Amino acid sequence: MGRSQASFKERDAPQDGTRRQGSEQSRQPQASFQEPAGDGRQPGGISPEKAQEEEGTYRLQIIIGDQSFSAKLYENETARALIKTFPVTLEMSEMNRNEKYYYFSQEFPANPSVPEKINAGDLMLYGGDCLVLFYESFTTSYSYTPVGYLEDPTGLAQAVGNAEIQVSFQTG
């Protein structure tokens, strides 16, 4: 279910380099604009042409409990760097009842843009070190680097629940 920007709170890594721990902070939207993505489901709200251009052959399995979800990763520098860390199991935290996130201890290459819409199943990088798995769809004005998306996010929201969870990422 989409959320309006007025009622949607998002996290922010403070400018001083510290990370917020558990408290929600508002962040200022980036001054950026992207053309509407069209009518169909487009991962990360990018245009169909851009999605086709960026979609690579990287395949990923995301395992949550006893459920496995197939994902495709984009052919971009961020996905190539991130995939080098797989297989990995992450303890992902809950945020805003629409996403799970994990801060890595390392930075990844980032090329953030403002998606028109984030879709359930989108996998994105916030900043240079925060991997985010979205399980609800909504509009946003904040910047993320698209990494990939679940081919079928059906059942994802139920699988992740509303607490911290372990999520395994495996190539193949």
Automatic annotation (TrEMBL):
Compositional bias ranges of the Basic and acidic residues kind: 8-22
Ranges where the record places region Disordered: 1-54
Polar residues biased stretches: 23-33
InterPro entries in UniProt: Cyclophilin-like, Cyclophilin-like_dom_sf
Domain Cyclophilin-like residues, every copy: 62-169
Designated name of the protein: Cyclophilin-like domain-containing protein
